[in-house]
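Propose amino acids for all 230 sites.
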């Protein structure tokens, strides 16, 4: 029996994208399937993990003293209020592990999206143990990890950092980061897409894996932020 049912949701209101049965190491126990898993699959697994669209989640950082998680979750929204365009009362916040100087990685998503994802799963008889931003399911690397996904590129820029950018805007973003000395020195590009990163030392990974199979390997590294908290 596979340990985990890994489901990837589509952006917006397009519902289920694909799913895969995986073991604890993220190895697929069958082919990637599209659409909704059937009841037999849902009832046969020990847990369900959902990869939510990276474009719907902002990954930021906040410095807040203390270790009491409930107090931190109450304080974090107001520590980030000036950085966010949306009213904090309409947002959901999830914390990653504390770093140096009381710095916390924070995943921010609209509450409406959390509600919509939960409702979609419930209507199909699914209860998830984890909601992980798909950007944090890319395998980690010394620099950036990138994967083209249609007209966008998923970027994991750290253990708990990443973003999604339109393919055509990536060169401009990279040049701006280079001016600020924030661009990576190295990067790994997964998949068969050719991504131009200028002067960055790029390693193209010749992996014969479908996107969800690749994301399963990154998820199994256990460094993502679970949105189901607070």
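Proposal:
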């Amino acid at each position: 029996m596979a340990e985990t049912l890994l489901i990837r949701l589509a952006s917006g209101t397009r519902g289920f994208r694909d799913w895969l049965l995986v073991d604890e190491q993220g190895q697929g126990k069958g082919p990637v399937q599209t659409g909704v898993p059937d009841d037999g699959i849902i009832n046969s697994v020990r847990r369900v993990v959902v990869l939510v669209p990276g474009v719907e989640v902002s990954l930021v950082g906040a410095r807040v003293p203390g270790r009491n998680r409930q107090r931190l979750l109450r304080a974090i929204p107001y520590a980030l209020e000036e950085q966010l365009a949306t009213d904090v009362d309409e947002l959901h916040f999830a914390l990653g592990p504390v770093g140096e100087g009381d710095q916390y990685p924070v995943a921010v998503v609209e509450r409406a999206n959390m509600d919509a994802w939960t409702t979609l799963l419930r209507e199909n008889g699914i209860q998830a143990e984890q909601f992980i931003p798909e950007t944090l399911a890319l395998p980690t690397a010394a620099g950036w990890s990138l994967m083209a996904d249609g007209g966008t590129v998923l970027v994991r820029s750290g253990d708990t950092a990443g973003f999604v950018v339109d393919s055509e805007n990536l060169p401009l973003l990279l040049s701006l980061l280079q001016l600020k000395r924030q661009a990576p020195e190295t990067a790994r590009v997964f998949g068969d897409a050719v991504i131009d990163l200028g002067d960055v030392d790029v390693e193209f990974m010749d992996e014969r894996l479908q996107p969800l199979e690749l994301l399963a390997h990154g998820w199994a590294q256990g460094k993502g932020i679970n949105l189901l908290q607070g």
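Residues 16 and 193 are 24 Å apart (CA to CA). The mean pLDDT is 93.
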